[in-house]
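Data deposition worksheet. Section B asks for the primary sequence of the deposited chain exactly as it was used as input, without tags or linkers unless they were present during the calculation. Section C holds the resulting structure in token form. Section D is free text for depositor observations; keep each observation to a single sentence. Incomplete worksheets are returned to the depositor.
Section A, Depositor: J.P.
Section B:
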Amino acid sequence: MSRSAGSAASGLLLVVLAACRAPDRPDPPTDTTPPVATTPASPDAAEPASQWRLTPQGLGPVVSGMPLSDIAATIGASPDFDPAERDCGFLRAPGAPAGVAFMIVAGHIARVDVTEGAVRTVEGAGIGTTESELRTLYAGHLTEQPHKYTDGRYLIVSPAGPDSTTHRVIFETDGKVVTRLRGGRLPEVEWVEGCS
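Section C:
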């Protein structure tokens, strides 16, 4: 085959191959979102957000009834009070999300309080959730009481199942949105003044 015939055959092959390829598609969008860190940036981010969901039993790996000795191993914390001298106190842990405090009663976790930050319940409720959204999320499991100190309310979730008589999640509102929440065992989860 001559050089010009070879060039013509090569050109024809390119035309045939180009005709067989998929039609032009726009380039997929470029994701400009920064990658999610796989290691925590701070102690508050020690676990994925889904790990730190508030439930009637507790928060993430910390559950009501857990002895104080297990708390230190689980989230690297110890109370700033002497449990032998004081039966009730709060513990803030560097291994837990910001705005979270654990109530310790008689050397065991009794409840978890969330006063700020992004902690949510399994259903997605947290600080900033509206009362209307809570009524929808927890239909059939929600009771309401007037707040003891403000114009807001306590919206109290009684879980279904075996914990229905022993645990609660309580949302405090300003009359419109959640301002704080807590979960844990009865009666401590209902103590309005905490350990006072």
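Section D:
The chain has one domain: 43-190.
Confidence is low (pLDDT under 50) at residues 2-47.
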